[in-house]
């Protein structure tokens, strides 16, 4: 595909910004180059240059109350008491981040109990909308860990 | 010359060298029960990427024992941790059976084995699948035991059998461990965790003493009161009992 002329929407840039927004948890990013500014925002009405990309981002916003992590249908819960880790070891990147698309069976977090390491896998394919635990913190049986949608 | 045998219930797969016995065992286990039935023992003479807790390196030159046992027990995931204590007791007894007189062997929470108060063996379990009520698809019980050499630069002091004056071969240690593991596993399957917990307690080190427990981001100090019915460590911190399921134990009063 030919490079987009300057006047066209740079789709790759918008996608990158949207991904960056997810990764950082920001609600709005503005990026300017050569006099063209692109602003990507989670609120659809604020979207200037990305009418196509914004709704997709907005649609995956966590739904407000009364749904709580515990009763959320996409909540992946701890099958055991232990300590949760979000990466395979302290120097490795996290298994998943908010915004990631995961496939069924993919490891989301790791739970250790008395030196038994149990990878917690995604029960179905989906998108990570929330990670509810901090690496190294204790978790109880049935505690929601990650929310997939 | 005496022959040391591994009980025939095991399906032994021996490697001259491998990256990690746990990783290889997991690979085999994933191929299914026909390829890797319960009791498949991956044994390597050398590991190039031996692992400990939280991705730590486990020095694995030739001369020491590196094993990973594939298990498919019918117990819920929450009870899988009990097997770590079963295995620790098995190593404890194996050392007792081959030790010359005058050595101290201890279990250190959760499942390290100390010889003369230095770490001689470590256990690392990994599971796949399972849930609160369902058993794991499989468990990998990794066990490394220092026979000929031991690392010098560990946070907790380490040792090896040779350094402590044992004269025994790799085959002898493996034979003692596999036999002892069978008898401890049967005891656990027949009678549950409670007798295992009691047996572990009186072989353990540091109970009733001040200990430090290093967690991922902090260190907790307190008195090591007991282990509970799940095997979690109960730490008394100024009268308040904290239940700990993961961490590294150190004894501030000693060299460690």
Summarize the structure.
Chain A is an alpha+beta fold and 149 residues long.
Provide a descriptive summary of the structure in words:
The complex is a heterodimer of chains A (149) and B (256). In chain A, the strands form 3 sheets. Chain A has a 4-stranded antiparallel beta sheet with strand order 3-10-8-5, with no helix packed on it. In chain A, strands 7-6-4-9 form a 4-stranded antiparallel beta sheet, with no helix packed on it. Chain A has a two-stranded antiparallel sheet with strand order 1-2. Chain A is elongated. In chain A, strand 1 and strand 2 (36-41) form a beta hairpin. Chain A folds into 2 domains: 11-41, no CATH class; 75-148, OB fold (Dihydrolipoamide Acetyltransferase, E2P) (Beta Barrel). With 149 residues, chain A is of the alpha+beta class. Chain A has 2 helices and 10 strands, in the order H-E-E-H-E-E-E-E-E-E-E-E. By secondary structure, chain B is of the alpha+beta class. Chain B has 2 domains: 11-203, Bira Bifunctional Protein, Domain 2 (BirA Bifunctional Protein, domain 2, 2-Layer Sandwich); 210-250, SH3 type barrels, CATH 2.30.30. Helices cover 23% and strands 28% of the residues of chain B. Chain B contains 4 helices and 12 strands. Chain B has helices at 21-30, 82-98, 170-191, 193-203; strands at residues 11-15, 40-44, 65-71, 105-108, 112-115, 118-128, 138-145, 210-214, 219-227, 233-237, 240-244, 248-250. In chain B, helix 2 crosses helix 3 and helix 3 (170-191) packs across helix 4. Chain B is globular, with a radius of gyration of 18 Å. The N and C termini of chain B lie far apart (40 Å). In chain B, 42% of the residues are buried. The model of chain B has no long low-confidence stretch (mean pLDDT 93). Chain A binds chain B through residues 79-83, 85, 88-92, 112-119, 121, 135-136, 138, 141-142, and chain B through 53-56, 77-78, 80-81, 83-85, 110-111, 123-132, 136, 139, 215-217, 230-232, 245-247. Strand 7 of chain A pairs parallel with strand 6 (118-128) of chain B.
């Amino acid at each position: 595909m030919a490079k987009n002329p300057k006047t066209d929407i740079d789709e790759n840039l918008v996608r990158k910004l949207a991904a960056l927004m997810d990764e950082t948890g920001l609600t709005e990013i503005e990026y300017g180059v050569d006099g063209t500014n692109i602003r990507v925002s989670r609120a659809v009405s604020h979207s200037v240059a990305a009418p196509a990309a914004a709704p997709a981002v907005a649609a995956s916003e966590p739904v407000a109350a009364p749904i709580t992590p515990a009763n959320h249908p996409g909540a992946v819960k701890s099958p055991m008491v232990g300590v949760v880790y979000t990466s395979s070891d302290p120097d490795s990147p996290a298994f998943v981040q908010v915004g990631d698309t995961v496939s069924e069976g993919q490891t989301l977090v790791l739970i250790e109990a008395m030196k038994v390491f149990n990878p917690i896998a995604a029960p179905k394919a989906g998108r990570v909308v929330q990670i509810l635990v901090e690496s190294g913190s204790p978790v109880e049986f049935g505690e929601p860990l990650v929310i997939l949608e | 010359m005496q022959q040391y045998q591994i009980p025939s219930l095991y399906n032994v797969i021996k490697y001259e060298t491998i990256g990690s016995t746990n990783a290889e065992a997991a690979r085999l286990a994933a191929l299914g029960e026909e390829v890797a039935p319960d009791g498949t023992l991956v044994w390597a003479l050398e590991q190039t990427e031996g692992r400990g807790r939280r991705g730590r390196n486990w020095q694995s030159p030739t001369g020491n024992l590196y094993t990973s046992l594939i298990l498919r027990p019918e117990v819920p995931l929450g009870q899988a941790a009990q097997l770590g204590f079963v295995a620790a007791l098995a190593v404890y007894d194996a050392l007792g059976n081959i030790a010359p007189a005058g050595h101290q062997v201890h279990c250190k929470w959760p499942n390290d084995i100390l010889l003369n108060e230095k770490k001689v063996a470590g256990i690392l379990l990994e599971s796949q699948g399972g849930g609160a009520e369902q058993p794991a698809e499989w468990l990998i019980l990794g066990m490394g035991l220092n026979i000929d050499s031991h690392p010098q630069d560990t946070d907790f002091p380490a040792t090896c059998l040779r350094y402590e004056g044992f004269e025994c071969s790799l085959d002898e240690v493996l034979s003692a461990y596999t036999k002892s593991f069978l008898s401890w596993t049967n005891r656990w399957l027949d009678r549950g965790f409670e007798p295992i917990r009691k047996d572990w307690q009186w072989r353990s080190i540091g109970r009733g003493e001040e200990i430090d427990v290093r967690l991922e981001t902090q260190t907790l100090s307190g008195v090591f009161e007991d282990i509970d019915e799940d095997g979690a460590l109960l730490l008394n911190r100024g009268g308040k009992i904290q239940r700990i399921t993961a961490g590294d134990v150190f004894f501030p009063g000693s060299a460690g």
